[in-house]
Design a protein that fits this description.
With 358 residues, this protein is an all-alpha fold. The protein has helices at 2-11, 18-28, 33-38, 43-50, 55-69, 73-81, 85-91, 97-111, 117-121, 125-135, 138-151, 155-162, 167-176, 182-194, 198-206, 210-220, 223-239, 241-250, 254-263, 266-278, 294-302, 308-338, 350-355.
Length: 358
């Protein structure tokens, strides 16, 4: 192994043998963490190849760097510090769809680095990722939204993303993609992060079908997508309920929220309950002695919904939700009764009444 390693590290320095050496390095590092570590010294000459005038050298070097960076945080950092971001961002604009896809894949990998996430965002890649999200191949679109999702966990990158007017692009993806798809899941996660900004909330409301696209993900998305969708709507309502309550209700969100309170993830259920409370008409807090059960909240909302069909769907969903809730409560009582021992039975006979539910 040592002989092969030293030979390739020597060949990668020679312009006459660089392409072939890069191709060998790519193959060896495709699945091996050990080879990735051993070929770390090749990163600097590979980055230099990205700046050459040879398209073949560009492709060989970019693919080798991509494999070196996968699952190796140290190599990710080294690629960025060696100046690899600038040529990679240039390849995002390539007319060659293959090179564009390779460049997006490299950005995805580098953007996964917690240490270099901010540097990747500041490289100027964000506008090009959005452009690819609009007009790239299916694979490039998916990888672009993954990169944007990675970058969106860094607050400074959200500010940079906001400057590129991402809302129309994100809404278009939500409208045109399968609601349970990975691209939708990543897209709605980015949108949930962005609605912290007032400009995004306003633009989402003004964008034709914008709020509706989020509601549809809430209804039909994957568990994770639905969690991001209800989080998006909840943030809008929490930020300014007076402005966003009506646009959200108008898009028929109630049935989906009702279903989510029963069948969503724990986070989704909690967010759905909170959003339903915020969608009540009265902006004032209820007195403590007034019941604030979910059924009362929903009845209040349903009474204000326009449209016979939408109201009927909401009432039907509420009835189903209450039935499931009652069944769950009954099972809980039965389980408690089964573990109740004679010494646990109080004089009031409350435990006996639970057993009688069986």
């Amino acid at each position: 192994m040592d002989t092969h390693l030293h030979l390739l590290l020597r060949l990668i320095q020679d312009p006459s043998s660089q392409i072939e050496a890069a191709q060998h390095i790519r193959r060896l590092t495709k699945t091996s963490n050990r080879w990735r570590r051993h070929f770390s010294p090749a990163i600097t000459p590979l980055v230099s190849m990205l700046c050459s005038h040879s398209p073949q050298a560009h492709e060989a070097a970019l693919l080798a760097l991509l494999n070196l960076a996968v699952k190796d945080e140290t190599n990710k950092i080294s690629i960025v510090e060696a100046g690899g971001l600038e040529p990679i961002v240039r390849f995002l604009q390539s007319v060659d769809p293959n090179m564009q896809e390779y460049a997006v894949a490299a950005i995805v990998t580098l953007s996964a680095s917690p240490v270099k996430k901010l540097a990747v965002g500041a490289s100027g890649c964000i506008p090009f990722l959005l452009e690819i999200l609009n007009h790239g191949s299916s694979q490039a679109k998916l990888e672009s939204i993954v990169a944007l999702s990675n970058l969106s966990t860094e607050p400074n990158n959200l500010t940079l993303l906001l400057q590129s007017n991402p809302v129309p692009c994100l809404v278009n993806i939500l409208k045109t993609s399968k609601k349970s798809s990975k691209i939708t899941e990543r897209c709605i996660s980015v949108l949930e992060s962005l609605v912290e900004f007032e400009d995004v909330r306003v633009l989402l409301t003004l964008e034709e079908g914008g709020v509706l696209a989020v509601v549809e993900v809430l209804e039909s998305g994957s568990h994770q997508s639905r969690e991001h969708a209800v989080g998006t709507l909840l943030t809008m309502c929490q930020m300014d309920r007076c402005i966003y309550r009506e646009p959200i209700l108008k898009e028929g969100v109630i049935p989906g929220l009702l279903e989510l309170t029963v069948h969503g993830t724990p986070k989704s259920r909690a967010k759905a309950h909170t959003l339903l409370r915020l969608l009540r008409e009265s902006p004032y807090e209820r007195p403590e002695f007034v019941s604030e059960t979910l059924e009362n909240i929903l009845s209040n909302i349903i009474s204000q919904i326009d449209g016979e069909e939408q109201c009927g769907n909401a009432k039907k969903m509420m009835a189903e939700m209450v039935q499931v809730s009652m069944e769950q409560s009954l099972r809980h009582l039965q389980q408690r009764a089964l573990v109740c021992t004679p010494s646990d039975i109080p004089l009031t006979g409350s435990c006996v009444s639970e057993v009688s539910l069986k």
